[in-house]
Design goal:
mainly alpha
Length: 153
């Protein structure tokens, strides 16, 4: 019975390490989808000159943005953006949607270019962190569980 409990503790620590690695992968995926969203919005603005509401409706209908849950809650009055990304990155997303419909098309296209470049860099950063830290987080979790188990024994 005691061994089963120690095994559960070891698995729990390993899961915590895996969870930390998975959060980095999720951030990279969200950044990738944000870049795709900016490209999609650029096309919508450039070729069809859609209004704010139509662009938001188009984003909601697009299936490739499944990790961008905040899109479903967007409206003209409220811009509460909550993602696993940092506070600064969330503010950058909020700023994009605040500008949408409030500036001319040429300025909005420049904003989208800047937004896309910024999140491309963030995606690369999270991708690099995932490649260098994922195995480390998992190993630390497993070793932490083993060390905790040894301390209890």
């Amino acid at each position: 019975m005691k061994l089963a409990g120690l095994f559960v503790i070891d698995v729990l620590f390993a899961f915590l390490g895996f969870s930390a690695a998975h959060s980095l992968k999720m951030k990279e995926t969200i950044c990738r989808e944000l870049v795709e969203m900016a490209s999609f919005m650029r096309i919508e603005l450039s070729y069809s000159l859609n209004t704010y509401e139509r662009i938001i409706d188009s984003l909601n209908k697009e299936k490739s943005f499944n990790k961008l849950n905040f899109i479903k809650n967007l409206n003209a009055e409220s811009f509460q953006i909550i993602t696993p990304l940092s506070h600064v990155e969330n503010e950058r997303i909020e700023l994009l949607f605040k500008k949408l419909g409030n500036v001319d098309v040429a300025s909005m296209l420049e904003i989208l270019d800047s937004f896309e470049a910024y999140f491309n860099e963030q995606k690369k950063k999270y991708e690099q962190q995932y490649q260098t830290h994922a195995k480390l987080y998992t190993a630390i979790g497993m070793l932490g569980g083993a060390a905790f188990t040894l301390i209890i024994i």
